[in-house]
Each structure stands twice: as structure tokens, then as C-alpha cells.
């Protein structure tokens, strides 16, 4: 059994673009994102030569983190001169040198982080061989992780594993006969694996920030032409006062004020009266002194008494 180690370096350029129908999920790889891709890779071996891979495809995220896709791939194999001489021209004419595959695929992003996004990819489809070797089936699975380098750039690292089926059909396709002797390369229908690495540009994988909505501008006022306005109307004449039918109010004659009375003359001050005492007894049977009216002291009206000062 011959052991062949194939190291595959795959550089993929992925340009996610935003589809028309997209949800409001701000994380990368959201629903509605289309992921077209271009692949270029190759392999080499010290025993038989090398190969060149060219591919293209696209994936559509039906939900956030889960995409369905279709990928086309063409692998051309270049055998070394030493290998050709070892198998001979008759056998080498039967060995296929070109493989074209059409692979529907699923891509599942396990964690849609802003810095790290691990994923698993799975594909299953037919492989067409040249030199009339028939059609085979092939499945592939590729776990990996994408690491953000900055801005829109992601570093894609992973491992690809695959195998062709069915085993009987694969053995018939790679069994070569010469002069009754058959030759079958044991590596053709076994597991294949390889490392995968590349740069992915996540354009459109992140939801673009929407500018804040602005209120609509107020409606502009447009003046109408003067001909569209109605002609001016004259003001009505002022209303004439209407005489009141109620009788005039009755007039009341003014009330005359009473005549003023002459002022009352002021009372003169009372004359001092000596109070009798033991030292100065009043004379017997002496009438009380009377005050003769004078011009300056008016006679009090009858019925009024003169004030008597209190005793000392």
C-alpha cells in the first residue's frame, strides 16, 4: 500500500453581499446574505506529481448562520515523468487527468461572534471523470474557524475531509488493465484530507448602520395668482339708530336742603363761688349772690343750671 500525503493550500476570496430581503439581525452571516466565492488551490506529491484546483460558487443564508450553496470545482492532475514511465504508456492512457465536480453544500456558522466564528461545511455531489471513466459520488466536510483580522478581513483556517462512493464504482473507474494485468491505485477511493487556509473579506456580512430617520419637510406654500381670488366686496352701510318705544324716565324734583339755624352763642365761664368754711361762715339770711348779666356774659336760658365746681 502506498501512502500519499496531500497538502492542500486553498485560498478563497469570499465577497458576501446584502440581499434584497434581510432581517434586522446586526451580527455577521445574517439571513439574506449571499456569499459568492472564488477558490484557487493545489496539491503536490513526491511520488506522482501535482494538481491544480479552480473553483467558484455561492451560498445563501436562509437563516442567521445557516446557508445553502452550490459550488463548481475543476481539478487537473499533472503526473511526473517518473510516474508515467513506471506505469507505462498503455496504463497511463487510461488514468483520468481531469475531474469536474458539482457540489451542493451547507454552511453552518456555530457561533456568529464579532471576533471569532467557528463553522462546519458539508457538501455532497457528483464527480465527472475524463477519458470515459464514468461518474462518481463524493462527500466532503470541512470544520474550521474564521478569525477577524480587522475591518472586513477574516482569516479562514480549517481541515477538509472527503471520500468518493460507491466503493465498487470507484474501483472500476480507477482499475486499469494492460495485457491481462490490472492496476489499481489504492489512494483513489480512500479518505482524502488537507489543511485549508485563506483570507475572507466579509463585505456585506455585517448589517450596515441606518442613518436616523428625519421628519418630512413641511409642505411648501405656493401663492395662487390674483385672478384665482374672488373680487372684493363693498362693506354694507352702517345701521341707523332706531328710536326706543319705551316712555322717557320720570324726572324727580330736587329736594331742598333745610335752612341753616343761627349759631348758638357760647356760654360764659362760671363765676367763682366761695365755699363756706368755719373760718369764713356765710352771713345769716344772706341771699345767694346773683350774677348780673353783662354784655359779655349772656344770660343762660331758663331751665339750665350753672356748673358748680367741686369743693377744694
From TrEMBL:
Keyword presence, Transcription regulation: no
Bias kind Pro residues: ranges: 228-291, 298-312
Keywords assigned by UniProt, alphabetized: Membrane, Signal, Transmembrane, Transmembrane helix
Regions crossing the membrane: 52-72
The name this protein goes by in its record: Outer membrane protein beta-barrel domain-containing protein
Signal peptide: 1-19
Region spans: Disordered: 204-312
Amino acid at each position: 500500500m502506498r501512502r500519499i500525503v496531500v497538502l492542500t493550500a486553498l485560498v478563497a476570496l469570499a465577497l458576501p453581499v446584502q440581499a434584497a430581503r434581510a432581517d434586522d439581525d446586526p451580527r455577521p452571516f445574517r439571513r439574506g446574505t449571499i456569499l459568492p466565492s472564488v477558490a484557487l488551490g493545489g496539491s503536490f506529491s513526491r511520488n506522482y506529481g501535482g494538481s491544480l484546483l479552480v473553483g467558484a460558487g455561492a451560498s445563501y443564508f436562509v437563516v442567521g448562520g445557516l446557508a445553502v450553496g452550490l459550488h463548481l470545482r475543476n481539478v487537473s492532475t499533472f503526473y511526473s515523468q517518473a510516474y508515467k514511465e513506471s506505469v507505462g504508456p498503455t496504463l497511463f492512457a487510461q488514468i483520468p487527468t481531469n475531474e469536474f465536480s458539482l457540489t451542493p453544500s451547507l454552511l453552518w456558522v456555530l457561533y456568529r461572534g464579532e471576533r471569532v466564528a467557528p463553522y462546519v461545511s458539508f457538501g455532497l455531489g457528483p464527480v465527472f471523470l475524463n477519458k470515459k471513466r464514468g461518474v462518481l459520488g463524493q462527500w466532503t466536510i470541512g470544520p474550521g474557524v474564521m478569525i477577524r483580522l480587522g475591518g472586513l478581513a477574516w482569516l479562514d483556517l480549517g481541515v477538509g475531509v472527503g471520500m468518493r462512493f460507491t466503493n465498487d464504482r470507484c474501483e472500476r473507474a480507477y482499475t486499469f488493465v494492460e495485457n491481462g494485468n490490472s492496476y489499481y491505485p489504492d489512494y483513489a477511493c480512500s479518505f482524502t484530507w488537507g489543511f485549508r487556509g485563506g483570507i475572507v473579506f466579509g463585505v456585506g456580512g455585517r448589517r450596515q448602520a441606518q442613518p436616523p430617520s428625519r421628519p418630512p419637510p413641511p409642505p411648501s406654500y405656493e401663492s395662487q395668482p390674483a385672478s384665482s381670488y374672488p373680487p372684493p366686496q363693498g362693506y354694507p352701510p352702517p345701521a341707523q339708530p332706531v328710536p326706543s318705544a319705551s316712555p322717557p324716565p320720570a324726572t324727580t324734583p330736587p329736594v331742598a336742603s333745610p335752612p341753616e339755624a343761627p349759631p348758638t352763642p357760647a356760654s360764659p365761664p362760671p363765676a367763682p363761688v366761695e365755699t363756706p368754711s368755719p373760718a369764713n361762715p356765710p352771713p345769716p339770711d344772706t341771699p345767694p349772690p346773683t350774677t348780673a348779666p353783662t354784655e359779655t356774659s349772656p344770660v343762660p336760658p331758663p331751665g339750665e343750671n350753672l356748673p358748680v365746681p367741686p369743693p377744694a
